[in-house]
Amino acid sequence: MSVKLSKTSKLDGILSWSLQARDTCPASIENGELVDACKGCYAVNGNYRFPNVKAPREFNRLDWQRLEWADDMVNALESSRYFRWFDSGDVYALGLAEKILEVMKRTPWVKHWLPTRMHKFPKYRLVLAAMKSLDNVSVRFSSDSVTGEYIKKLHGSVIIPTPSDVTKNMTLCQAYANDGKCNGCRACYDKSIPLIAYPAHGKTMNRVIMLKKAA
Ligand code: SF4
Fold it and tell me: Which of 1, 46, 61, 162 is most deeply buried (CB count within 10 A of its CB)?
């Protein structure tokens, strides 16, 4: 059986493995409310609502539980040099995190990028630390802020309202200047870069920021 990977033009055609946003994002909720960064999530609107985009994400939620899944993922990455985990969704189950760690270990020729909020749950600390210890893996803990707030040495990515809000400790994602595409940049996969700042995009996110600033 083969795994279902996605190929998005934003990522220069780099493959990714994703789940349905929100359904698999337990760390997006705090005190019964979505955290700011998830209120404007791109992965619940636009194309992401189409059945053909949702279907592989729903399929993947069951598929990773197969015994052969890690073997199939390793085979699927045979000719990849970069790989993105979770264009949408998050590592909602510890068993999934352990299987992803196995795939990462068995594909040293691939540079993996895994953004997550699951570091908020203590039971994930060991497995995420094991991923981070691998030379070929960039795990980025996402800040919940939409106004550039982050905790040094904890967070690896944060949303800023506009490109001019970048500060000296941040590496600015340039996709906004390249039609929303990575255009050859691979900063997110580079573990030597501590913090990436993503300028907010989309009407919903801009509304979230406006409300946040007005509060
Ligand atoms: S920082 Fe670079 S690799 Fe990361 S999303 Fe932006 S353009 Fe793509």
Answer: 61
